[in-house]
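Priority: medium. Attachment 1 of 2:
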């Protein structure tokens, strides 16, 4: 039997406003909650990002996270304090969003 972990492990630090993910391949990612909320992949947020109304001031996204829910084996859904919960963040999307220097094309020593 393979004892290797198959799914990411998430650690939420509300006080620091961060979400850490330890990936099954050993990689470690840390995301700001503000950036996660701003990148919400739901249809409503995507529509606003693609067609902003120049006469409206964009609402500041609430980056306080209330809870996280797994969606099958492929994603996580965040519930934000403002009630927004429509975005489904796939593991692939989160990995591509990793802000570390290695994933952004740099080296470990940066």
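Attachment 2 of 2:
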């Amino acid at each position: 039997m393979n004892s290797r972990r198959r799914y990411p492990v998430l650690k939420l630090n509300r006080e620091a406003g961060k979400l850490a993910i330890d990936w099954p391949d050993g990689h470690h990612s840390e995301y700001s909650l503000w950036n996660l909320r701003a990148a919400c992949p739901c249809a409503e947020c995507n529509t606003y990002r693609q067609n902003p109304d120049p006469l409206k001031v964009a609402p500041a996204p609430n980056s306080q996270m209330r809870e996280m829910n797994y969606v099958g084996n492929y994603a996580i859904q965040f519930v934000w304090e403002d009630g927004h919960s429509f975005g489904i963040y796939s593991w692939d999307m989160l990995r591509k969003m990793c802000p570390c220097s290695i994933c952004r094309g740099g080296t470990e020593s940066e």
